[in-house]
Amino acid sequence: MNYKLQSNVRLQPLVLFQIIDAYERRSQCASMAVGTLLGRRCGDVIEITNSFTVQHKEQQVGELEHFKLDTQYATEMHELNQMSYPQEKIMGWFSTGKSLSRSAAALHVYYARESGEAQPLHLLVDTTLRGGRLNTRLYCAVTMGVPDGTRGLMFTLLPLLKMDIDSDEAVALRFMQKQVMHPTKQLGRLLPELVSVVDSLREIELKLDMVLRYINDVLARKRLPDNNVGRALYDALTSVPLLDAEAFRSVFNANVRDMLLSITLSSMIKTQMERLQCNDYTKIHLIRRTLLLLRNRSFSHLQIKKTPKTLIYKTQ
Amino acid sequence: MASRGNRHVRTEESENTINYVQCDGLAVMKMVKHCHEESSNMDLAQGALLGLVVDKCLEITNCFPFPKSGDETMDEEMYQLTVMRRLRRVNVDHLHVGWYQSSDVGNSLSLALLESQYHYQTSIEESVVVVYDTQKSSRGFLCLKAYRLTPQAIQMYKDGDFTPDAFRTLKVGYESLFAEIPIVIKNSPLTNIMMSELNELLPEDKGHNFLDLGTASVLENHMRSLIERVDELYQEAVRYNKYQQVVFKQDTEKHRALAKLAAENAMRTSKGEPTVAEEEVIKQFRPMPVPPRLTATITSGQINTHAQHIAQFCSQSLAKLFITESLQNAKESKEIK
To answer: Is A281 within 8 Å of B140 when comparing Cβ atoms?
Structure first.
């Protein structure tokens, strides 16, 4: 079963985090980190979702390089991983380094056995940052040579990886990326929500400025107009929906009212709680009644009205 | 048990053992992955945190998930030990510094959480619990919170005394049960480089969903659970009020009986008869069992966090609403022209 070059390989960012961590935590004598890639396969799409580091030994004996992978360790780790993520299968291996090392052939033999009938993939991360970039490349080995004669392995470079990301992970990643871009800001604090909205607004403003500058340049014939940019801009502008003024007002007002009401309520409850502390609960039913009454009357937009009947019954 | 006791004393001596939690990007991503995958089948995700303690800072550098609890045959402790031993061999920090859980933040500060955190903190005093809010995070706000039990809360739980008097003497209120520890996320330079590379590969529109205008569902959920909590608190309050009434009644009766006894005794002494001791009367009134206040305190804490979250959520939603308003105004004025 040969691996098709057109297949779609998707990589989750977590795996890259794990590889870099493995590289940073390698033992003193090791020059690189090696580990198993885990993932799942659905038809033509291959997803690499997880990985774990595997111990290995490197030895330089004269010209020859000895490379030994702790296969027992790899099997044990895989079994442990099966307990929490039973759907993840062995997909191949990763290693760090400038280019394919001699050990790749030995590793290929091992992982070909482990990953069943499918060809194992090899993910190479260049942690030496050659060319000022952190290159990630994906290889797949093909056997070649004369039938019944000498045989060798040929590693072919697969097309650039696609990133596969869930929205939750994207949120975490965006947050951390923002820190990289603005290192002067407070050290990685998780900011309140309002701040992130304001921050993104500021970003939009910057982008708008950039677009405006471009448009002005084009109008002043300082820069050649680009049709693609123009189309993209037009798309963006038309994507803002124009609501009927009346309808917008009513929706807007309903929303604002709900929000303000919720804020008032929650701060009211908080103040009451602070006053009450532990022992005097006589007033709690007052809050409760207000909550229920307000909910029944005023939450025009929210549909909290559908609550268990017992609640309403109790207040009457 | 003796060793546990010793550790305990240390916890009380060194108040505020940890000032902040520093979390590695790797641990964050692993937690997010695990919690996200579990939340899609409505399960609670839990796992262990690994790291080390440096001065007043707890560094979380790795984590691993607990296996699904459906399998009864497996020994969970054995599993944890095996994983830690294996990870140790590839130079991962092997100090067990706490645990994480996926949940809705308001509801998470429950009795179960208190219990497990108590066991953690009594065996490893620096440990924290990290709560990851899946609902909020899918809305675009990364929501990780670290909590620890305060020394008073530990003392209270150790004594197993949840009467109002115990609360008063230890000065435990709903605000001083859990202490929130600020979380800082830090990455190594190499990881930062990797993330900058990733920036080019990521689709532009992913991860910006916090600008989503739809607020009703989140607010609704928050409100609903707030109402539920207030209802619970109300029940507790009713119970406590009943107790107070009963005690009051008993007290008045006791006083009446004692006054009667005093009068009778005065009669008896005047007649030269032996007096009856007051204890005889007091014995008749057995003291009422005091209702424990732990549930009420925890519920209060939950209400408090809910209220905070609602306020935070509403303020950012208002901001977004006003952004839309200005957009709409701009469009309208253009239409008129």
So the answer is: no
Could you give the CA distance from residue A118 to residue A92 in angstroms, rounded to a whole number? 9
Q: Which two tokens stand for residue A227?
A: 């049709």
Determine, yes or no, domain membership for B279: yes
Tokens at residue A48, please? 């690499």
Domain limits at B146? Answer: 2-207
Phi, psi of B332 (to 5 degrees): -60, -45
What value of ipTM does the predicted structure carry?
0.78
Per-residue pLDDT tens listing for chain A (316 residues) = 444 555 678 888 888 899 999 888 888 877 888 889 898 887 778 888 889 988 888 777 666 667 788 888 888 888 888 888 888 888 888 888 887 777 787 888 888 888 776 778 888 888 888 777 788 888 887 777 777 777 777 777 776 666 777 777 888 888 887 777 765 555 556 667 777 778 778 888 898 899 899 989 988 888 888 888 888 888 887 877 777 788 888 888 888 888 888 888 888 888 777 776 544 455 555 666 666 655 554 454 444 443 333 333 333 3
B202 touches chain A (CB under 8 A): yes
Smallest CA–CA distance, residue B138 to chain A, in Å, is: 5
CATH second-level architecture of A8-163?
3-Layer(aba) Sandwich (3.40)
- pTM, rounded to two decimals: 0.79
What are the two backbone dihedrals, phi and then psi, of residue A128, each rounded to the nearest 5 degrees? -85, -5
State how far the Cα of A169 lies from the Cα of B90, in Å rounded to an integer. 25
**In degrees, to the nearest 5, what angle opens at C-alpha B98 toward C-alphas B162 and B108?**
55
Tell whether B173 lies on the interface with A, counting CB pairs under 8 A: yes
DSSP-assigned letters across all residues of A77-141: HHHHHHHH-TT-EEEEEEEESSS--THHHHHHHHHHHHTTTSPPEEEEE-TT-GGGS--EEEEEE
CATH for B62: 3.40.140.10
Say yes or no: A17 contacts chain B, CB-CB below 8 A. Answer: yes
- With residue B178 as reference, give the H or E element that holds it: strand B178-181
Q: Are residues B197 and B69 in the same domain?
A: yes
Measured in residues, chain B has a length of 337
Q: Which residues of A touch B34 (CB under 8 A)?
A: 84
B148 Cβ under 8 Å from any chain A Cβ: no
B151, B121 contact by CB (below 8 A) = no
DSSP code at position A189: B
Provide the residue count of chain A: 316
What is the pLDDT at residue A209? 92
Q: Identify which of A53, A165, A256 has the shortest CB distance to residue B206.
A: A165
